[in-house]
Amino acid sequence: MAMLFQDGAGYRVSASEDGHMDFAPRGEAQIALLRYLTARHGHASVEWVVSGPGLANEAAIRVKALDLFISAYGAAAGNLALMALATGGVYIGGGIATKLIEAFPNSSFMAAFTDKGRFAGLLGDMPMRTTLEPNTALRGAASHALAAT
């Protein structure tokens, strides 16, 4: 997870370790996943759920792994959008997004993304895009390094 800010002179990427934030479960299946992860790792982070290895964790507790994964992914993206107040838009990218692009339209991703109480309307109005370029982060780092020289 990263945040892109415009600072008047250009754009800056905020360094973060957002994947290590606490996993905030929604519903009984995700609460069961929280219990499983806490027992196994001592801490249930977003990364233990919304990543490739996270999908394996969910399968281990015999729930509808893909549905749960996409819902948790949408909720985490919505949390980041609120944290950054991303009124300019949210871009979903990375290896997982490119593999799941076909599943997003008929999934619970957007419902989980916008399920933020009184801020549901704000999140519903945020532009949402999926970046299919698998090397977006690498290209961004290279661009930053070139600009610094």
Structure description:
With 149 residues, this protein is mainly alpha-helical. It has one domain: Hexokinase, domain 1. The chain has helices spanning 28-41, 46-49, 52-60, 65-84, 95-100, 109-114, 120-125, 136-148, and strands at 3-6, 11-14, 90-92, 128-130. The strands form two sheets. Strands 1-2 form a two-stranded antiparallel ribbon. A two-stranded parallel sheet has the order 3-4. Strand 1 (3-6) and strand 2 form a beta hairpin. Helix 3 crosses helix 4 (65-84).
In short:
It is built from eight helices and four strands. The chain has 149 residues and is mostly helical.
Helix segment tally: 8
Assembly type of the chains comes to: single chain
For the sheet with most strands, the description reads: 2 strands, antiparallel
Strand content: 5-15%
Strand line-up in the sheet with most strands: 1-2
Q: For the terminal residues, how far apart are their CA atoms?
A: 25 Å
Query: Which percent bin holds the helix content?
Result: 40-55%
How would you describe the shape? globular
| CATH class category label | Alpha Beta
The whole-angstrom Rg is 16 Å
Key words describing this protein structure:
149 residues; mainly alpha; Hexokinase, domain 1; two-stranded antiparallel ribbon; two-stranded parallel sheet; 4 strands; 9% strand
Topology, pairings included?
Elements: E1 3-6, E2 11-14, H1 28-41, H2 46-49, H3 52-60, H4 65-84, E3 90-92, H5 95-100, H6 109-114, H7 120-125, E4 128-130, H8 136-148
Parallel strand pairs: 3-4
Antiparallel strand pairs: 1-2
